[in-house]
């Protein structure tokens, strides 16, 4: 565990945690430092987290000099220095969605701590921060601009996207090989509708596509055919979804999400997507905040929601123990850290 002194400038007064408070906070966040894997029980997860923490404590003294040097580099904010396993929050703190989330969390901690749905509201703030494109947030919510007003400049793209999506909908509904399985906000395709769904957790692979390449959706039948063959060959159930509207594509970090059951297909699906993109001159854009491309849903709850709920519960449990600015910043920081770690 890197020994870092957490400091913020809150209302023009420097607030500094004591070493004991830092250690307590570090342990609390370490214990929820990753999401529970699909192949372990809650008891196994808690045991592994405690053993991991004890191992971290045992190794701390051996790493002290190296850690302190890395901490100095972090505080200095020198991006040219190798920071090893030190998390560089400076890389993300000025993103519009991160700054907006911090404002919301501070407001909730100051004015809404007694709300019965405090955890749900905080989880929603964190989920939005993790899943929305920062450029979109910067042009709308953070700028005080209504989404409808911002989208007025994209009327042609919205119309084109809707037209092609309606064609795809008809193609997949009429095809005996696929089924159209959409839900609010997402256009979904089941590549193996002849097989009953399995009551197991779903793996997910995310792909982000640049905004100016929204025409990728016209090539979706080609990708779904490839994934159907893989689904049949491996006795898997592979489903694909894309944003239901151009507004969804413009605002959401995930352009293509592939759901599947067989973990052995992870690399094969990623290779299939890469080959499809190369063939159609489609490019991949890094996910916001370096989030993992591979994740898993647990009992119908998405990975992003799991991370958001995890951090929101921690924030509720610790409100009042630390200064609000410290809590908000740490919640955001560890939400990003958890979202970068694949649970598989």
Explain briefly what this protein structure is.
With 344 residues, the chain is an alpha+beta fold. It is built from 13 helices and eight strands.
Description of the molecule:
The chain is an alpha+beta fold. Helices cover 50% and strands 10% of the residues. It has helices at 19-31, 42-60, 64-76, 96-111, 118-131, 134-139, 147-151, 155-174, 220-233, 246-251, 266-279, 303-318, 324-339, and strands at residues 7-10, 13-16, 179-180, 186-190, 203-207, 239-243, 256-260, 294-296. The longest helix has 20 residues, at 155-174. It starts with 6 loop residues before the first strand and ends in a 5-residue tail after the last helix. The relative contact order is 0.16.
**End-to-end separation:** 22 Å
Which structural class best describes the helix and strand composition?
alpha+beta
Helical content band = 40-55%
Mean pLDDT equals 82
In N-to-C order, the SSE pattern is EEHHHHHHHHEEEHEHEHEHH
Strands across the major sheet, in which order? 3-4-6-7-5-8
Percent of residues in beta strands:
5-15%
The count of β-strands is 8
What composes the largest sheet? Answer: 6 strands, antiparallel
Total DSSP helices:
13
Low-confidence stretches: 1-16, 61-84
Globally, the shape reads globular
Radius of gyration, taken over Cα atoms and rounded to an integer in Å: 22 Å
Task: Give the helix/strand layout.
Blueprint: E1 7-10, E2 13-16, H1 19-31, H2 42-60, H3 64-76, H4 96-111, H5 118-131, H6 134-139, H7 147-151, H8 155-174, E3 179-180, E4 186-190, E5 203-207, H9 220-233, E6 239-243, H10 246-251, E7 256-260, H11 266-279, E8 294-296, H12 303-318, H13 324-339
Antiparallel strand pairs: 1-2, 3-4, 4-6, 5-7, 5-8, 6-7
